[in-house]
Design brief:
Elements: H1 3-30, H2 38-59, H3 66-96, H4 101-112, H5 114-134, H6 136-152, H7 163-174, E1 178-183, E2 200-207, H8 211-227, E3 232-241, E4 246-255
Antiparallel strand pairs: 1-2, 2-4, 3-4
Helix pairs in contact: 1-2, 1-4, 2-3, 3-4, 3-5, 7-8
């Protein structure tokens, strides 16, 4: 193991320790089964996402040992799902201001089963993914399919799931720490005239002072929506996170795309 790989493996372990503290704090808040803690949960979720992005963007690319890659990837899978579940929880609180007790129980059980999920469910998934990725025949086949898609649609994104999932994926890849998608009619914005039929607001935040990066996130999301034939306008906000004494930059996109189903 090289010096850099060993150093980054230790860094990943430190980040996982921080993530473990965060998920324990989230668990304690969820046990109250009250929406009054949703803002605290949202902040902790954003910190989880920031730490996961740090591992993916800085440390994980330097890890070469397959056992280490499997351990790291299995744990990250758990946090991917945790962040998605918490984002959905926050969106439901914002939309309905009431959460069924079973919803809390499912989240609590998920966190309580963390070790088992990582060692069994997520490890099996990651074993299959890594095997497929490093198998020469499978890799060649995937690269061929990707090359054909890129050649066919040079400047377009190709969809691997519902539009809402694509928006979240593109935003996170671009650098957003947290993304919320809400129905425009649920937001108190009056006399909005920049587009004819506003239907959805995409709200994204990042722990950073880099306003250009925030604008680039909005540009990526707007470009994607435009490529799908939708109108979109980017709004930039700036907030101060008093709890962590760090600046949060926030942006929103208003679009005529319908990203949420009527039964949400």
């Amino acid at each position: 193991m090289s010096y850099i790989e060993k150093k980054y493996r230790n860094k990943i372990s430190e980040v996982f320790e921080e993530l473990s503290k965060l998920d324990k704090d989230i668990l304690e808040l969820l046990k109250h089964k009250s929406i009054k803690h949703s803002d605290k949960i949202a902040k902790l979720c954003a910190l989880c996402n920031k730490n996961v992005n740090q591992i993916l963007g800085v440390y994980y690319p330097e890890i070469k040992d397959m056992n280490d890659k499997l351990d790291i990837k299995s744990t990250l899978k758990f946090y991917y799902d945790l962040i998605d579940k918490l984002t959905d929880f926050i969106r439901n609180v914002e939309n309905y201001q009431k959460i069924d007790e079973k919803y809390y129980e499912n989240l609590i059980n998920f966190l309580n089963d963390k070790d088992k999920l990582i060692s069994e469910k997520y490890r099996e998934i990651c074993t299959n993914e890594l095997t497929a990725f490093y198998d020469p025949t499978t890799r060649e086949s995937l690269e061929k399919i990707l090359a054909e898609k890129i050649e066919k649609k040079n400047r377009e994104y190709f969809s691997i799931g519902p539009l809402e999932q694509e928006i979240k994926k593109i935003g996170k890849i671009a650098g957003a720490d947290m993304i919320s998608i809400l129905n425009f009619e649920d937001i108190q914005i009056r006399d909005f005239k920049l587009i004819d039929n506003p239907r959805t607001i995409i709200h994204y935040t990042m722990f950073s002072q880099d306003e250009q990066k925030l604008k680039s996130i909005g540009k990526e999301l707007k470009q994607y929506l435009n490529s799908k034939g939708y109108e979109a306008v980017v709004l930039i906000l700036e907030l101060n996170d008093l709890a962590t004494e760090r600046e949060i930059l926030a942006g929103s996109i208003i679009t005529d795309a319908k990203l949420l189903s009527d039964n949400r």
